[in-house]
Amino acid sequence: MKKGGQKFSALVVDDNKMIRKVEEKLLARFGFETKVVENGEKALKLFDDGYTFDVVVMDMEMPVMNGPVATRALRARGVDCMIVGVTSCGDGPEKAEFEASGLNCCWEKPLNAEIVGTILNKLDNKMS
Amino acid sequence: MQRQLANMKQTLFDQGYLDEQFIQLEELQDDANPNFVEEVVTLYYRDSARLIQNIEQALEKSPLDFSKLECLMHQFKGSSSSIGAKRVKSECTQFKEHCRVGNADGCKRTFQQLKKEYATLKKKVEVYFQFARQIGPVEKACRSK
Does A21 contact chain B (CB < 8 Å)? Predict the structure, then answer.
């Protein structure tokens, strides 16, 4: 929790409806106020519309605009919040490319309690 | 009844049908979302039915478009791992390997195996949820939270 009882905010970006549902619930369980969108372009639009988030959980492969492209675009716009990549690609060139696009860290799918806990810790440390 | 349900679940784990991720989903279930796991699994079967159809169609083409197949399977693997469908996930990995090396027969064989595991898991979780729903109200009364 942020100081003053405010919740941390998260944005889930994934083209899979089921995964959006699971990630949203998982983050909510850890006290995040969460929004979900289905691709990178919609994520960008939220930021362009003035929304801010403490953390973005970004899937790698999505239609319309994928993770690496969206991450690069966000960083280019000066977005400096935590962006966490999630992928089922394992270690390899795609993961490295994704990390290089501006992620703070990258995790193997599926998102789980341990990963969210780690994210929360990092955010708490950032605030203090 | 509770013990029976726990045993059912344990068997699914022991036999490798489900993994830790399923437990993660169960932990997200609460009074506000008492059927969360069942909802997620239902969503999985609905979404993946479409994917399976697409893969089936793609496997009928000649020559095979391995890159497209790998992409479809990648989505399927992502979903399957999100509900803890361990055996299905492992078939997905195998399939992707076959795609990578351009092994058409391997793809077709593995896909048949995958469909079998997928169907078996579906039946087993259906039974599990049915049973869980029956004893649901009892469980609530007994919970000492």
Answer: yes
